[in-house]
Amino acid sequence: MPSHIKTTIAGFAIALTFACLSQNCTAQQLVKADDPRIVYTGRCSHSTPGAVAWNWPGLQIDAAFTGTSISMKTSPGSGYYMVAIDNEPAFKVESKEGTNVVELATGLAPTSHRITITYCIEGLLKNPVFYGLILDEGARLLERPTLPERRIEFIGNSITCGLGIEGDGSEKKSSYALQNVYYTYAARTARALNARWMTVARSGLGIYRNTLGNPKGDKGVMPDMYPYTFFNKKTELWDFSQWQPDVVCIGLGTNDTTNPSYDVSLLASAFKRFIKTVRGHYPHAKIVLLTGTMIKGQRLANLQKAQQEALDDAHANGDKEVYRFDFTPADGSLGYGSFKHPSFKQNEQMANELVPFIRQITGWD
């Protein structure tokens, strides 16, 4: 892990333990996942009593509690989470195979505390399930925490998922340990703007074709998956009415323009259709098309052309709240993550570029 990601929590009056524990928790109590005092941000299913399931990255779990320790109960081997307690820096924990309890903190002051747990990897193969929070005997959850009113949804691919963001570019294989949506431009942008954020993203996805897919178009692209609570599971439609964003950022097109050949006209048509889909769900949101940092030259020019055609079409049809934004293409000066993906520092720069643009179109201070 790069040194800039290794965070030392100096002076924090808790002993943070990153190991998973057994289910046998002495003198503790489980507050089930469907307790109304726990707040979720992200697409998730409440169809099973006492449990919450999801597989898109970036689900956030917020709660306030009393007591000196806290753990969470999850499906074994569900992967990596970022945890932020009170106003201290976030740290990473892992839900490993063979146990369903992950200790998050011990030795807390015997007062009230605030916690945010963020699922920081893609969950398609992990099928994560959250069963609740484990508190000290006699401790309790407090009222639902107040979250920011501003809301941003990020729709994207591996860049938005944070694939390889904790790598150094030398990796030969993909690793969940090096993926972290919490450090991406998306999460950073939202935090800088004091906004809640939701990610609807999957590595390899495009808007009309996926990585190295059929130049005439693929099935299973983002518009096909977008209506559903789970990625690649058409078993539960997502209820768009329960989370209405102020801004929707669409970071697609990098995978569509992978070799072999691709069709710019089909790409433009897909953007036009998807803008209409998003607008149908979010009538008042500002929609921003992003180009990413991994492409340049003619490939970037073609993506910009397709997006501009879609933007012009939206404006011509009366939708003036559609915009475009180009990140500065990566040149290696900020390093690379795994497989030439944006590095930790590149994502910092991306957020620094996007934040002023969103302030400009929203009027947010």
What does this structure look like?
- The chain is an alpha+beta fold and 365 residues long.
- Helix content is 20%, strand content 25%.
- It has six helices and 18 strands.
- The strands form four sheets. Strands 1, 2, 4, 6, 9 and 11 form a six-stranded antiparallel sheet that branches. Strands 3-5-10-7-8 form a five-stranded antiparallel sheet, with no helix packed on it. Strands 13-12-16-17-18 form a five-stranded parallel sheet, sandwiched between helices.
- Helix 2 crosses helix 6 and helix 4 packs across helix 5 (297-316).
- The chain is globular and about 65 Å long.
- The model is unreliable at 1-26 (pLDDT under 50).
Compact overview of the structure:
By secondary structure, the chain is α+β, with helices and mostly antiparallel strands. It has six helices and 18 strands.
